[in-house]
Write a structure and sequence with these properties.
single chain, about 950 residues, mainly alpha, two-stranded antiparallel sheet, elongated, transmembrane
Length: about 950
């Protein structure tokens, strides 16, 4: 069977060679005939009269050109013209199946004119590519590939047969196989030289010369490997050199035979180091060879404008780098770093190199007019994307190896900066720029949480044993691995410099790319500096991180000033201005955290935001007022992290006049001042936002001071309390008011429905927490020593007043059911405050239910409820609010029911009599009040405005 397959393979090779020679001869004769025909037509000067169609012009062609039949696949130019015609402008068609041919000259003849005017013809339109037939697919394409496979198998089977039969010695067999491979490559080159280029255009993926060359290359590669691995004819060095020579020769021949052969050579070069093993492997030899192979592949790709093979080369380099870092017993970082730098340099210089969008025509139709689409789909996108990934993955592996692997930190920093420089210098390098940012932030994060960072600062190893036997047993010795903080800071500075240079370089060519770099340039150094400070800096006072943050902040603000020169306000938003100014502000905030602590940091951030607002007097940058909003958000975050501002141990116990007044009140005052400063600012949104934030901070200041005062200077507790929940309730009410204010100034469905959703959630919180879960009557929580400024004031009266104000603000601006819900919630909170205050009067700080009720206490409830009902009636009449008047009626009804059911059963003597006397008097007074305010001047008319819904 093997003999038959071998003979078939040889027969196929001879047949392919003969067919290729005959085809080449026939095609050569056909092209020469067509060339003579075209020269004859030019010599005769055949022109088309005015109004003559393309078909009539074709009929006027010389008869000898039509009599001689042309092959079906390659028709004559006149037969093509008859089949396709020409357009109205007289554009010619391509001779070979729609490919552009030599432009035809159009001569326009005019009646009565003595001279003919020749006009230049336009570029001919490409004819639609005909669908390939089944016969062509099977006969011209698959037969070629199957034939190539058969040739390669034939060579392998010949060697196998000779081994089994013992006909020849191993050296002779391998020599014959090598000769067979060389013959296949020679035949491939011979066929290529005799074959016209038209075959390459018609059957690009089934070129016979390329298949023959590939079969020969595989044979030579196999022979070399077998000679080394199984017979030991070659040593490792010789085998490596021969395999590399075959690989490089294959890559070189791909320039003649196409991209598929380049892929074969690339694959051979990538597997060569894995096939040849040495007792002393050299990292320099490995990555030096891979770098040369990669450069050869990219050089060929540059010449032929390939994308698939260089993308595969990038993937192969990344795979080798990751495998080496993760699997090698001894890792040398410098050779790997050399290969990665070669990778970055090759992308910037060789391929894609200096290519632009104009150098590569779009694949389909015209290029997109959207700058973002052009940015995300640059020329040779597959090459740049895979190249960026090939550099990113080894960089991240190196970052994870710090500090266990020597020089891994420097290798990581060098690769990141190489990616950043590549992204800055080339207009197509969007993906190197993006992945440099990702690798920098993720890599530094991996370094600071690894050994030597916060998560592993207690790593220890055993000390070496003592030399004498009497020594004590070895004790664990702590080892703190040091992450190079100075290198991280240097990386932040270098990245900032490259980022600013990139913004300057890209502004002239691509505004979208410049905008992207303006976002990356401050973000990446800020992340690196912040991670370094939080993990390795002195959180109380760190001069190194603080001064560097100040320098970078001023640098980015200066860059925003430089790049904004010459731009008018009407030019629209300028993203570099926004990004660089915000980045500079962020660095200054980080400097405050590094060089100050506690209250000074909070106030410094608020003053910094105010300074940005007042800077609008010098520069009318739209970003400056929004920096104050960012400062308020940071202050709010600090308050959420540490409500005491200075720490619970350092918080003064003096009521009102303590650090809380400054920490909460001064930012509120500065927000109000900033809103006033922006009273003439063209945009109203930021002014309204600052006003709402000022209101929220003022409300929060009042709540926090009350809680501090009523708890004896203790602000927070791990056990949930009513005071803590009250602060949350006030915050939610303030948020609802802020959203409503924003909606009134800048209508938005988000603000409109968001304010109502927040208000509804706060009402649910009141019902569940204030009335049931955290009610001091049920929990027994002490109310505080101060009779009025106590827990009841914060938990019930203050939220009740806030709900009343919110309901008043929402009148006419929100649906009536929502307004009634807010008003009734405020009334319910006021009722709870009055009721629980009565119980506090009779029982002191503790009002728990287990204490029962006193007879005077029961009577007091009736009196207070009736008075509260009268007060609500007056308020509802004052503000024309029917909902409050109805709440008053309901409260009076509750008092009446209590008097008749509770007081009658529990009160005795004078208290029972007084209860009923007071109830009757109040009810008569309420009746007289209603008769007075609801009567018209005639005594019968109703005042419609008092009965109106509120």
């Amino acid at each position: 069977m093997l003999e038959i397959l071998s003979l078939v393979a040889i027969g196929l090779a001879l047949y392919t060679l003969n067919a290729s020679r005959n085809s080449a001869q026939k095609l050569g004769e056909e092209v020469m005939r067509l060339k003579r025909e075209v020269e004859a037509l030019k010599a005769e000067g055949v022109t088309a009269p005015v109004g003559t169609t393309a078909a009539e012009t074709a009929e006027a062609a010389p008869e000898e050109a039509a009599e001689e039949p042309a092959p079906a696949d390659f028709a004559s130019p006149w037969a093509t013209a008859q089949a396709t015609g020409t357009d109205e402008a007289g554009k010619g068609r391509s001779i070979f199946g729609g490919e552009p041919a030599v432009p035809a000259e159009a001569v326009v003849a005019s009646e009565g004119a003595d001279e003919a005017v020749a006009t230049a013809s336009a570029v001919p339109a490409a004819a639609a590519k005909p669908k390939e037939s089944f016969e062509s697919r099977i006969g011209a394409r698959w037969a070629v590939w199957v034939g190539g496979i058969a040739l390669a198998l034939g060579g392998i089977f010949m060697v196998k047969y000779s081994i089994e039969a013992g006909l020849l010695s191993p050296a002779v067999r391998l020599s014959l196989a090598a000769v067979f491979g060389l013959v296949l490559m020679a035949v491939g080159e011979f066929v290529r030289r005799r074959t016209l280029p038209v075959i390459a255009n018609a059957f690009q993926n089934a070129m016979i010369p390329g298949v023959l060359t590939a079969a020969g290359a595989i044979t030579l590669f196999a022979v070399t490997y077998v000679s080394y691995e199984f017979y030991g004819y070659f040593g490792p060095l010789t085998a490596f050199v021969l395999l590399a020579a075959v690989s490089f020769a294959t890559i070189g021949l791909s320039l003649l035979h196409g991209q598929a052969l380049a892929g074969l050579g690339l694959l051979a070069s990538l597997v060569t180091p894995a096939l040849v093993a040495t007792e002393e492997p050299s990292a320099w030899g490995l990555f030096g060879f891979l770098s040369v192979a990669w450069l050869a592949t990219f050089a060929a790709a540059r010449i032929r404008r390939w994308q698939v093979v260089p993308a595969l080369a990038n993937a192969g380099m990344a795979l080798w780098a990751v495998l080496y870092l993760s699997e090698a017993s001894t890792v040398a970082v410098v050779p790997l770093l050399f290969a990665m730098l070669v990778l970055a340099l090759g992308h910037g210089v060789i391929w894609p190199g200096s290519i632009t969008a104009e150098d590569v025509p779009p694949a389909t139709g015209a290029a997109s007019a959207d700058p973002l689409d052009r940015l995300l789909a640059p020329p040779a996108v597959a090459v740049s994307l895979t190249g960026a990934l090939a550099l990113t993955f080894p960089a991240l592996v190196l970052a994870n190896a710090v500090p266990a692997l020597p020089r891994a930190d420097y290798g990581f920093a060098a690769i990141v900066m190489a990616l950043a420089v590549l992204g800055a210098l080339r207009g197509w390098a969007i993906y190197p720029a993006l992945f440099s940012a990702i690798a920098a932030v993720v890599g530094v994060g991996a370094m600071v949480v690894g050994p030597g960072g916060l998560l592993f600062d207690d790593v220890s190893i055993l000390a070496p044993p003592a030399l004498d036997d009497t020594a004590a047993l070895p004790l664990p010795v702590p080892v703190i691995a040091v992450v190079p903080v100075d290198l991280l800071l240097l990386l932040a500075v270098a990245y900032a410099a490259v980022g600013l240079a990139a913004v300057r370089l890209r502004m002239a060519g691509s505004s979208a790319f410049a905008a992207l770099w303006s976002l990356i340039a401050p973000a990446v150094p800020f992340a690196i500096l912040a991670l370094s400070f939080l993990n390795f800096g002195n959180l109380s006072f760190d001069l190194k991180h603080g001064l560097l943050a100040v320098a970078l902040g001023l640098a980015f603000l200066a860059a925003a000033e430089v790049f904004s020169r010459g731009r008018a306000e009407e030019d629209g938003p300028f993203i570099p201005q926004w990004a660089l100014a915000a980045g500079g502000f962020a660095f200054l905030v980080l400097a405050l955290h590094a060089m100050t602590d506690g209250l000074a940091t909070t106030l410094g951030i608020a003053f910094l935001g105010t300074a940005a607002v007042f800077a609008t007097r010098l520069r009318r940058w739209p970003v400056l007022p929004w920096l104050m909003a960012g400062a308020a958000a940071i202050v709010a975050g600090r308050i959420g992290w540490e409500p005491t501002i200075v720490g619970a141990a350092n918080l003064s116990k003096t009521p009102v006049f303590n650090q809380l007044l400054a920490g909460y009140g001064i930012p509120a005052a500065l927000l109000a001042l900033s809103a006033f400063e922006l009273r003439r600012w063209p945009g109203t949104q930021i002014r309204n936002l600052l006003q709402a934030l000022a209101s929220l901070f003022l409300l929060l200041t009042a709540a926090i001071l009350v809680r501090h005062g009523m708890n004896g200077g203790v602000l927070d507790s791990s056990v949930p309390t009513l005071g803590e929940q009250s602060i949350y309730t006030l915050l939610v009410i303030g948020a609802s008011a802020i959203l409503m204010s924003l909606d009134l100034k800048s209508p938005s469905p988000v603000f409109r429905y968001g304010s109502m959703v927040v208000g509804g959630l706060s009402v649910l919180s009141i019902l569940s927490a204030h009335f049931v879960g955290l009610n001091p009557y049920f929990t027994g929580e002490l109310l505080g020593k101060w009779p009025f400024l106590d827990l009841l004031f914060v938990g019930y009266l203050l939220p009740g007043i806030a709900y009343g104000g919110l309901a008043f603000h929402a009148r006419g601006r929100r649906p009536m059911p929502y307004v009634i819900m807010l008003a009734l919630t405020g009334v319910a909170l006021a009722f709870a405050w009055v009721t629980l205050s009565v119980r506090r009067y009779w029982h002191g700080e503790g009002i728990a239910d287990w204490k029962g009720f006193l007879q005077p206490e029961t009577y007091t409830y009736s009196v207070v409820w009736l008075l509260l009902g009268v007060l609500l009636l007056a308020v509802g009449s004052k503000f024309d609010s029917k909902s409050i008047r109805l709440a008053s009626a309901g409260l009076v009804l509750i008092a009446v029911i209590k008097v008749f059911l509770v007081d009658m059963a529990n009160l005795e003597g004078i208290l029972r009599a007084l209860s009923f006397i007071g109830l009757g008097a109040v009810l008569i007074g309420i009746g007289l009040f209603y008769q007075k305010i609801l009567s018209g001047k005639s005594g019968t008319g109703e005042k419609a405005e008092l009965n109106a819904e509120a």
